[in-house]
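Researcher: Here's my situation. A collaborator sent me these components and asked whether they could plausibly form a single complex. I don't have experimental data yet, so a predicted model of the whole assembly would be a useful starting point for our discussion.
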Amino acid sequence: MDVWVQLLRKKPLGTLGGAIVLVMLAAAALADWITPYGFSQTSLRERFIAVSPAHWLGTDQLGRDLLTRLVFGARISLYVGFGAVALGSVLATATGVLSAYFGGRLDLLLQRGVDAWMAFPPLLLLMTILSLLGPSVFNITTVLGVAFGIQNSRVIRGVALSIKEHTFVESARALGAGHVRTALGHILPNVLPTIIVVATTGLSTVILTEASLSFLGLGVPPPYPTWGGMLSLAGLDHMYQAPWLAIWPAVALSLAVFGFNMLGDALRDLLDPRLKGG
Amino acid sequence: MTRYVLRRVALAIPTLFLVSVIVFAMMRFMPGDVVTRMVEGHAYAPTLAALRHDLGLDRPVHVQYLDWIGGIVLRGDFGNSYWTRQPILEEFVRRFPVTLELAGLTILISVVMGIAIGIVSAVRQDTASDYVGRVLAILALSVPYFGLAVLVVVLPSIYFKWTPVWTYVAFTADPLANLKIMIVPALVFGVTRAGPIMRIMRSALLDVLRQEYIRTAWSKGLSERTIVLRHALKNALIPVVSLVGLQTPLYLGGSVIIEAIFRLPGVGLFFFEALTRLDYPVVQSVNLIIAGMVVGLNLLIDLSYAYLDPRIRY
C-alpha cells in the first residue's frame, strides 16, 4: 500500500499513467453498459459521420459507432495484455528461478534455448507462429505470454543468481530446508519485486505487440474490434474518406501505451531501484 | 583478441543450430499446412498426396531437416519457394538492399536525434530544454510506429494533397529519387525509436558528468564543449551502443510492417507474403538468415566496446 501513497506523492507522471490505466480498465469492464451501440451494430444510413451528438467520435464505413468500438477494443488490449503478462511472469519466474537455483547442465540447456529464441526478431517469430496457429484471442494471448516469459526469464535468473549467493540461503540449507523450500520460501519472495516490475513495464510492450499483430491481420479476427485491427491496411481506402478512422485508434493506443509506460516506470523506481533505466 | 573472436564465433554455432531447429519444428509440427492451402485454394496438384510427395513432405521429418540444413551448410543453397519454385537466396539478395537501407537510415535518424537531444537534456538538466526533450522522448515511446505511419500516409494526402511515392526506385538507378522514397518511412520509424536512445543517453551522460575526472577537467579550465564532447561523451556512449545493438532485431522486425505500409519491396514484404502462403522453405530460411545477422551483429557490438572503453580487454 505504501507504494501507492508514494506514487501519488512523488510521481506525478506515474499517477497520470495510473489514472489512464484505471479509466481503461473501467471502460473495458463496463463496456456493455456504457456504450449505447453494439460493437458490430451497423447502420448503413449513418456511414462516415465525422462527429455528431449521437456518435461522438464518428462512424466507419458500415455506420458502426467508433467510440463503442474503441471501448470494446480496450477490452481486447487489456485481456491479451494482462493474460499474456500473467502467463509470461509465471513462466519466467519458474524457469528463471529453476535455472539459477540448480545451475549446471539444466541452466546451460535453458540458457542456450533462450539465446536461440532471442536471436529472432520478436515480431518475425510471433508472426510465424501465429500464421501457423491461426488468429484467435486464445492463441495470441498464449503465444505472447510464452514469448514474454522466455524473454524475461533472463532477468529473473540474474536476480535469483545474486540472491542465491546470500548467506541466508546457505543458512536455510544448513538448517535442513529442502530444495523446494529454499527455492519457494527464501529465493522467490526476494525475486518478487523484480517480477512485479518486469510485469508492469512489460504490459505496454505486450499491448503494442498485440496491436501490431492485429494490424497485420494475425491478431484477434473481426468482427471483434481491436485497436491494431482498426488501424490496419485493410481499412486504408476508407481512411482517405474518413481520417478519424485512423486518428482515434492511434490516439487510444498511444494513450494506453503512455499510461502503462509511465505507471511501470514509476513503480520500477519505487520498487526496485536496481533496474532503473534511462 | 583473435582468440576471443574465434571463441565467440564458435559459440554462435550452437545458437544458430537451435534457431534452425526451432523454426523448422514450428513449420512442421504446428497446425498450418502448406499443402492443403496449395491444393484447395490454387489447385497446384490433383491430390494432396501427390503434392506432398512432390515437395518431399512425405519423408520422415529428420530427413527433411537434414536436407534443408545440409543444403545450406554444404552448398549455400537455402532451397526454393514451394509456390514460385524460385531460389530463396537469390530473391533475398535482390531484396535485402531495400531493407538494409531502411534499417540503416532508421538507425541513423534515431541515433542522431536520440544522442543530440539526450546530450542537451543532460547538460541542461532540469531546465526548459530538458523538459521539452524528456516530453518528446515520452511521446516517441508512446506513439506506435505503425499508427504514425498510417497517419503519415493518410493525413497529408487529405489536407496537403501530398502522397508518398509508391513506385520504388533502386538507389543504384537514381539515388535522389530513391532517397525521396525512403526518407519518409525512415523518419517515421526513426523518430519513434529515438525515445529510448535519448533517455539512455541522458542518464548515462549525467552519470559520467558526476565523475571525478570530469571535475578535474573543469578545474583545468577546459571549456564545457570540450568536456562534454571530448571527455564525457565517449564513456557515456557505451550503454547507447548496447541499446542500439539490442534493438536491432526490433528494427528488422518492424521493417516488415513499414515495408507493408509504404510498399517497399524489401525482405520484410517477401517474408510477409511467404507467411500468408505458409511457404515453409522461405519462412524457415529468411528467419534463419536474419537470426544469423542478429547474432553476427551482437558480436560486432561486443567488439566495439573495446574501442569505446580501452579498459575492456579480451
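Model: Some features of this prediction you could bring to your collaborator: The two ends of chain A are 26 Å apart (CA to CA). Chain A touches chain B through 46 residues (CB under 8 Å).
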